[in-house]
Amino acid sequence: MDFLKNRRKIANSRLDELTNELEKACDLADGKACVYLIGSYGREEASNHSVLDLFIVGGWDEKRACSEKS
After folding, report:
1. 3-state SS of the chain?
2. Residue 1: pLDDT band by 50, 70, 90 thresholds?
3. pLDDT tens-digit readout, 25-70
4. Torsion of CA 41, 44, 49, 54, to 10 degrees
């Protein structure tokens, strides 16, 4: 059980750091995209050697898509 608690502590600490860094990106995205954390960080099981797996979904602007086709 201590192993998992340690992993969660590492994951949450790193996520706090990343959240602070990504706030600027959030402002730039302005509600046009969502970022999902997957993998070991998403499960809160990350170690010092874990990679960061992100899944980014952008919004769809139908008016813009139509104008780009023209």
Report:
1. CHHHHHHHHHHHHHHHHHHHHHHHHHHHHCCCEEEEEEHHHHCCCCCCCCCCEEEEEECCCHHHHHHHHC
2. low
3. 777 777 788 878 889 888 888 888 888 888 888 876 666 545 555 4
4. 0
Percent above pLDDT 70 for the chain:
81
User: Does the predicted TM-score (pTM) go above 0.85?
Assistant: no
Q: Please give the Cα distance from 24 to 28 (Å, whole number).
A: 6
Which one, of 3, 14, 2, 6, lies nearest residue 51 by Cα? Answer: 14
